[in-house]
Amino acid sequence: MGLFIQITSFILIISILVILHELGHFIPAKLFKTKVEKFYLFFDPWFSIVKKKIKGTEYGIGWLPLGGYVKIAGMIDESMDKEQMEKPPQPWEFRSKPAWQRLIIMLGGVIVNFLLAWVIYISLFVYYGETYVPVDQIKDGLYVDEISEQIGLRTGDKILKIDGNKVEKLDKYLTIDILLGDQVTVLRNGKEETVPLSDEGKKAALDSKGRNFVTPRIAAIIGAVSDSTNAKKAGILPNDEVVGINGAKIQFWDQFRTKIKENTNKEIQLTVKREGKNITLPVMVPSKGGIGVVLDNNKAVDRLVITKEYGFFEAIPRGFEETINVLVRQVKQFKLIFNPVIQGYKKVKGPIGIVEMMSPVWDWQFFWGFMAMFSVWLAFLNILPIPALDGGHVMFLLYEIIVGKAPSQKVMEIGQIVGFVIIMSLMVVIFGNDIWNLIKGGS
User: Fold this and answer.
1) Angle of helix 99-128 relative to helix 312-337, nearest 10 degrees?
2) Which of 31, 140, 158, 370 is least surrounded by CB atoms within 10 angstroms?
3) What is the pLDDT of residues 259-299, one digit of tens each?
């Protein structure tokens, strides 16, 4: 059922985004009295699942779920319809329209994607608010695992700045900002230090498949006690908070784990706080070093979390800011993709990888948040100045507006072929990553 929900939500998100993107081209084309021959969700090489012609436009659904398209008469696009282009221009064709109208038609899809993301973020802030841990509330600093240590952080660090920009929130974006940054300024042992962020550590973080490697130091609150374990035999209960071991004070979960490892094959005196009272229990630590308890991460972190609420008018600038932040992070990700040490290109995900990122349970907040993020991503990809993408057409149109003369049809055709080869090469890499990750996951 979980996989079905993941696939369904992904297809629904892609379908909505593709339809709205193509409407961004379709509507201005119609407003400028330009003939639109086809409007398709997904691609239809050789055949389509369904199609119907209405007022000169064929509407349909293709079988290849990699996007969608509108075919505008008199335009050199991926169809490479040379026969039509060799005929005299007609007033209802794209090539007969003024350059500024053609520019609006080509930018329409990107503009819709950007505006859609902005509207979604506004709605999410109004409905859900914004939940995060304020950095100034993390008085005991961060808990740092082995990956964070490779990057350059240490347990107890308080992050102040990344690349000189002040950090105010510990949220889902902090780990991304660290991966995209060059240096971090921390408060360490009472002193402010700026340390470089290691590429080797970033590679290890990406290899960990999205594990959150930066968390605040949190109290050792027991979330669950496994059956037939020493913790169960000793009488430890869920919601107990570990406050001491062998008389030594315990404040944090990482301290608790370290003490347990130090006392393998020994009996310890574990002090827990239960309903406001301290209780000491003898517990035998087995050779494996685990006594059979799991951290209640939510309860421990909830002590630090706040939710900021937004009114509609407050959410408008905040939604715009979030849209820009997502766009900037996506542009910066190319630093990871082309870095020879990090080799981020190996982590680029295609449709299979994206499906795995979807929530296995239906979660509207995740659904709309992912759609907003993906809408910004589609806007960014489509505006890249690669022939065969919207940005390639915009590039040629800007050339025409500046020079006063359009590139020749031959140049446009060659550009379209070059762009198609670039896109197909990227698709091979992306799908290759997906398939390789499936093989590795199954081995």
Assistant:
1) 110
2) 31
3) 888 888 888 898 999 988 999 999 998 887 688 888 887 77
Q: Spell out a b/e string for 96-119, using b for 16 or more CB atoms within 10 Å of the CB, else e.
A: bbebebbbbbbbbbbebbbebbbe
Tell me the backbone φ, ψ of residue 106, rounded to 5 degrees.
-75, -30
Sign of the alpha-carbon torsion through 46, 48, 53, 59: negative
Write out the H or E segment, with its range, that includes residue 435: helix 409-442
Q: Is the pLDDT of residue 105 over 50?
A: yes
With a cut of 70, say whether residue 325 has pLDDT above it.
Answer: yes
Burial 158-183 (b: 16+ CB within 10 A, else e): bbbebeeeebeebbeebbebbbbbee
Whole-number Å distance between alpha carbons of 110 and 296: 43
Q: Are 354 and 438 in contact (CB under 8 A)?
A: no
* C-alpha span between 83 and 91 (Å, rounded): 17
Q: 207: Cβ–Cβ under 8 A, 6 or more apart, which residues?
A: none
Q: What is the pLDDT of residue 443?
A: 43
Q: At a CB cut-off of 8 Å and minimum separation 6, what does 66 contact?
A: 42, 43, 351, 427
In order of 66, 72, 92, 100, 371, the CA distances from 107 in angstroms are: 20, 14, 19, 11, 20
Within 129-198, residue ranges assigned H as helices are 146-151, 174-180
User: Residue 76: how many CB atoms within 10 A of its CB?
Assistant: 23
Distances (CA, A) of 344 to 105, 186, 211, 252: 34, 26, 16, 34
Q: In the sheet where 169-170 sits, what is the strand order?
A: 169-170, 130-134, 306-308
Per-residue model confidence as pLDDT tens digits over 129-144: 998 888 877 877 888 8
Kindly report the number of other CB atoms within 10 A of residue 1's CB atom. Answer: 7
Domains and CATH numbers, the chain: 2-127+369-442 (no CATH), 132-217+304-308 (2.30.42), 222-299 (2.30.42.10)
What is this structure's pTM? Answer: 0.82
Q: Which residue type, as a one-letter code, is found at position 226? A: S
Tell me how far apart the alpha carbons of residues 195 and 201 are, in angstroms, rounded to a whole number: 13
Q: Over 271-294, what HEC string results?
A: EEEECCEEEEEEEEECCCCCCCEE
Strand-pairing partners, residue 225, are 293
pLDDT of 184-198, one tens digit each?
A: 999 998 899 999 999
Amino acid identity at 375:
S
Q: Which residue type, as a one-letter code, is found at position 362?
A: W
Residue 340 token pair: 């020879």
Query: What are the φ/ψ torsions at residue 188 (nearest 5 degrees)?
Result: -125, 120
